[in-house]
Amino acid sequence: MQSIKRYQVRGLPGKVERANFSGRLVDYWAPEGGSNRVLIAHDGQNIFDRRTATFVYTWRLAQNAIRVSKEMGEKPPVVIGVFHSSSKSDPHGRGKDLSPEDPFREGVKPLITPTITVDELRGNAYLNQIFNEIVPAIVDETKSEYSPQRTAMIGSSMGGLATLYAATRMSEKFSTALALSTHWPLGGNPLVDWLLPRIPQAGIAKVWMSRGTKGLDATYPPFQEYADSRMADLGWKGKRFTSKVYHRTTHNERSWASYVDEPLRFWLNT
Hints:
The structure is a single chain. By secondary structure, the protein is an alpha/beta fold. The chain has a single domain, classed as Rossmann fold, CATH 3.40.50.1820. It is built from nine helices and nine strands. Strands 1-2-3-5-4-6-7-8-9 form a nine-stranded mixed sheet, sandwiched between helices. Strand 1 and strand 2 form a beta hairpin.
């Protein structure tokens, strides 16, 4: 873990830290004195810093987490934003990181023309780095406490897929999966059928899914409705599973920021 810089963000006490983990950038924030909760977010470039955000708008994830935690009488979580690895030399790095690796290695066919090969996928290594290198170092650095039962992962689009995939592989590391605008068209219903039955209900306590109705999200209803039916068939119900539709929202950070307080409340409402 190599510290790069500290910077301030409006609405956040203290400073956000940026660090390099074996070539991967990570931004993180923790309340003073640390926390006993951890929130891990994909696409870390869009979490805190408008200068690195894809469309110059962030999730305001930590600000929302502070507000919701205060409402619920909880200390805010450590918020960890893990950058994808796309670069000029590796323009498809995000897809290599966030695509669920095992389903495609085991025969699920992409519904869209792939820009990368199955052999280039590195989703397993990406998740291993998060849980074996990044999270332990940040928990230690911020003097926080780590408990899988009090740890959540959140992502949108490909990050939603990565979150659900992590639930199939790392259920001993976190207990709540928050997947917004999940990009099911990558593999369609066969990908739904591969992922969802493999989420262990003994390890994962809660699963959130949601979508908008505009832009790319307008193509999601048949896939998300099928996912909802599969979750019901698998016995996910009540406070353990929620799937919501946010009308007039689209596929970008501004839309996700507009309702991210709800999945956070879903997580913290024990």
